[in-house]
Design a protein that fits this description.
Helix content is about 0%, strand content about 50%. It is mostly beta strands. The strands form 2 sheets. Strands 2, 4, 5, 6, 9, 10 and 11 form a 7-stranded mixed sheet that branches. The radius of gyration is 13 Å and the shape is globular.
């Protein structure tokens, strides 16, 4: 029932920053948990970060913790992934996902019902 649209992908040099945005149809995510996943060429889709809309808890993959941050704008239904100190290993298609996962499932792809089409991020060395 929810359409998600990612934006902000592009090419950036290693050490630089990039900001991704996920917007929800209807202007709000409602009660959904919203997460970012990424998929590099030849690899499985992996968890990046999540925002718990109830309580405001955040979750990060060890590979991005300390470099990425996640925030929300509930009034506009937007979720922002701020990526700093980017590395070539961060190169991937980044996907926005929404759903109602249990805490134990927040990092799994199958826990989310809605997915965006993805936005490409390329980090050059």
């Amino acid at each position: 029932q929810v359409q998600l649209v990612e934006s902000g992908g592009g090419l950036v040099q290693a050490g630089g920053s990039l900001t991704l945005s996920c917007a929800a149809s209807g202007g709000t995510f409602g009660s959904y948990t919203v997460s970012w996943f990424r998929q590099a060429p030849g690899k499985e889709r992996e968890f990046v970060a999540a925002l718990g809309w109830s309580g405001g808890n955040t979750y990060f993959a060890p590979s991005v913790e300390g470099r990425f941050s996640i925030t929300r704008d509930r009034s506009w239904g937007a979720m922002i992934l701020q990526m700093n100190s980017l590395k070539p290993e961060d190169t991937a298609i980044y996907y926005c996902a929404a759903g109602s996962p249990l805490i134990s499932e927040v990092k799994t792809t199958r826990a989310y019902s809605y997915w965006g089409r993805g936005t490409h991020v390329t980090v050059s060395s």
